[in-house]
Design a protein that fits this description.
Structural class: alpha/beta
Distance between the termini: 35 Å
Pfam families: PfkB
GO biological process, one term: fructose metabolic process
Shape: globular
EC number: 2.7.1.4
Organism: Helianthus annuus
Pathway: Glycan biosynthesis; starch biosynthesis
Radius of gyration: 19 Å
Number of helices: 10
Number of strands: 14
Low-confidence stretches: 1-61, 64-72
Largest sheet: 9 strands, mixed
Length: 398
């Protein structure tokens, strides 16, 4: 992967006052901050001349044509369709430094829904991605990465007027995460309802999404329409809020936005920090508090605890599954790897949601997915295969 020297970039202020206690969630903070907006002209001058027209002549009307569509035939019986953002993460080559102090960055494909789609495919499952990127070199690179990882990208769209989103992420010496986003606006924010591949959504076993796509129009309306189409077709809805406060106008709007679609989901994954945020500071380890977030139609509520594993709640049972201890290098995408692990198992056999022993086995598998991912830099590059996960589980038992 290419290295980017920080001297070539203009850095704005970043706020990160909320300290995460686990590596499974890329949680960022500062209740009133708009760090996503501090960089003016955040398209980084990636003009159309950057890419070669001969290389990308297969695009028309913002849609992906045959040359960059998913490589494999989609298995509709266990298909997981992931909706939302796909972007470029820039991860520093040295940990423990603030963003402005990092000597160089390694670029890596990312974006939570896209991470989940690739994670499922790498585990041998069937997945598709629906979202929008810029009609620029990064956008086409991301489309190619989905194809290379056997993710169906027929639902991917390109925007000629906005750039692919960029995110810079690092972990400082004091444990605080720092994020800086270039999306002012980025192409993922501009997906329109008319651009949705509704047939693909209706074919899914599971439709997975986050909350970032709810922040602005027109993507918010596209998100709601996609979710409704999936629900009407009998598709299971999976929701990982993936809170990124700097992207929302305010903490209150983030809380309201995340909870606005809460009761439609069948499966919800949240972190300890997100429980604190959504409950206005209540104890995330108190089962009575967590149960307040359990709505009547929910089939499974998952709480990730980083290296400590996860908790699970259903109508019939609840419990905790311990995690696998590793030496973390980069926690980016660990929660997405966990989601990919559990959704790959549920998509293959939905009945495990009612069988506690089998659910616990699936969650051990998901915990291992997250643990392996933190041992390498970047999200998508670090997502594991089933063989790697099974090996890790065997070593943990030995």
């Amino acid at each position: 992967m290419a290295l980017v020297q920080p001297s070539a970039l203009c850095f704005g202020s970043v706020s990160s006052s909320f300290r995460p206690s686990s590596w499974s969630n890329r949680f960022s903070s500062s209740t009133g901050s708009r760090s996503c907006d501090v960089v003016k002209g955040s398209r980084l001058a990636l003009t159309p001349s950057v890419y070669r027209s001969s290389e990308f002549s297969s695009t028309r009307s913002g849609k992906v044509l045959a040359s960059v569509q998913g490589a494999n035939e989609t298995d509709e019986s266990s298909l997981v369709v992931c909706f939302g953002e796909m972007l470029i993460d820039f991860v520093p080559t040295i940990n423990g430094l603030a963003l402005a102090e990092a000597p160089a960055f390694k670029k890596a494909p990312g974006g939570a829904p896209a991470n989940v789609a690739v994670g499922i495919a790498r585990l041998g499952g069937s997945s598709a991605f629906i979202g929008k990127v810029g009609e620029d070199e990064f956008g086409y690179m991301l489309a190619d990465i989905l194809k290379e990882n056997n993710v169906n990208n027929e639902g991917m769209r390109f925007d000629p007027g906005a750039r692919t989103a960029l995110a810079f992420v690092t972990l400082r010496k004091d444990g605080e995460r720092e994020f800086m986003f270039y999306r002012n606006p980025s192409a993922d924010m501009l997906l329109e309802e008319s651009e949705l591949d509704l047939d693909l959504i209706r074919k899914a076993k599971i439709f997975h999404y986050g909350s970032i796509s709810l922040i602005t129009e027109p993507c918010k309306s596209a998100h709601i329409a996609a979710t409704k189409a999936a629900k009407d077709a009998g598709v299971l809805l999976s929701y990982d809020p993936n809170l990124r406060l700097p992207l929302w106008p305010s903490a209150e709007s983030a809380r309201e936005g995340i909870l606005s679609i809460w009761d439609t989901a069948d499966i919800i994954k949240i972190s300890e920090e997100e429980i604190v945020f959504l409950t206005n500071g209540e104890d995330p380890y108190d089962d009575n508090i967590v149960r307040k977030l359990y709505h009547p139609n929910l089939k499974l509520l998952l709480v990730t605890e980083g290296p400590d594993g996860c908790r699970y709640y259903t109508k019939e049972f609840s419990g905790r599954v311990k995690g696998i201890k590793v030496d973390p290098v980069d926690t980016t995408g660990a929660g997405d790897a966990f989601v990919a692990g559990i959704l790959s198992k549920v998509a293959a056999d939905v009945s495990l949601l009612k069988d506690e022993n089998r659910l616990r086995e699936a969650l051990s598998f998901a915990n291992a997915c997250g643990a392996i991912t933190v041992t390498e830099r970047g999200a998508i590059p670090a997502l594991p295969t089933t063989e790697a996960v099974n090996d890790a589980l065997l070593k943990a038992v030995a």
